[in-house]
Write a structure and sequence with these properties.
By secondary structure, this protein is an all-alpha fold. The chain has one domain. About 70% of the residues lie in helices and about 0% in strands.
Length: about 260
């Protein structure tokens, strides 16, 4: 029941969030690429140098492209893993936190719209960096231009691109995935490695600024703190337990064969 319920929630959430990101970018707020590029350079992270390095080491790019596409698989795997581990409350926390992070990301993207590092640098990645796969950037460039000039007003849900630059939802997702699986000690190293790999791919494959990654991490941490605070403030019964605690404890007790009940 928990697994099917949460999977349905995640499917609905992602189906709504994609089109909403387009609606947010259709507000045509001034592009902030030059500001984001300035911040990156102030941090000592020049996107052009990063792209040039990987263009000269193209064998790494293939692995980074695989890592960038990793974002969708944990949305299917985490509900299964947490259900099998009887971590029902963490599963509900994860879905709520994911929802908050998506909402915050979409709102922020409306006020800090950007196309990506290559646009900020005024470069054509196919010409300057031919060994780097710029498919994701090209789709983002195409759709953002079409939104801003009014030519894109009918969305094909199956062809939506990831058009949010700041904050990076790939980075936010990576933090949330690690946090969701943290109670399962055996999976911590694998979760950290895979999600760290995805974050490493984000500046290059997603054409994200480094400040996008920092913003995405901040959104994830803030969402976790907010959800924990909201749930800890839930109305309590006469024994001081939150309203959801008895149901969760009963579900975990029934599902855990190692627990002995009288």
């Amino acid at each position: 029941v928990f697994w099917f319920g949460v999977t349905a929630q995640i499917m609905l959430l992602t189906a709504i969030a994609g089109p909403l990101s387009y609606v947010a970018n259709a507000t045509s707020w001034p592009l902030q690429d030059q500001s984001l590029l300035w911040i990156d350079r102030a941090l000592g992270a020049d996107p052009q140098r990063i792209a040039a390095f990987f263009n000269d080491h193209s064998w790494i790019v293939r692995y980074l492209k695989v890592a960038y596409s990793f974002i969708k698989w944990p949305l299917l795997g985490i509900p299964i893993i947490l259900t099998m581990g009887s971590r029902f409350f963490r599963l509900q926390q994860f879905v709520l936190t994911l929802s908050v992070a998506l909402a915050v990301t979409i709102v922020l993207s409306a006020f800090v719209p950007a196309i990506g590092t290559y646009y900020g640098l005024g470069l054509s990645p196919g010409e300057q960096f031919p060994r780097i796969d710029s498919t994701n950037y090209a789709a983002q460039l195409r759709d953002i231009y079409a939104l801003r000039d009014g030519s894109l007003r009918q969305l094909d849900v199956l062809r939506l691109a990831g058009i949010v630059s700041f904050p990076s939802f790939h980075t936010a997702s990576a933090v949330l995935y690690v946090w969701a699986l943290w109670p399962i000690r055996a999976l911590r190293p694998v979760s950290i490695a895979l999600n760290g790999w995805m974050v490493a791919a984000t500046p290059l494959i997603g054409a994200h600024y480094i400040i996008d990654l920092i913003g995405g991490g901040g959104v994830a941490v803030g969402s976790i703190i907010l959800v924990k605070h909201v749930l800890s403030s839930a109305p309590a019964d006469s024994q001081g337990r939150a309203e959801w605690e008895p149901a969760m404890q009963n579900a975990e007790r029934v599902s855990d064969p190692t627990r002995v009940t009288s």
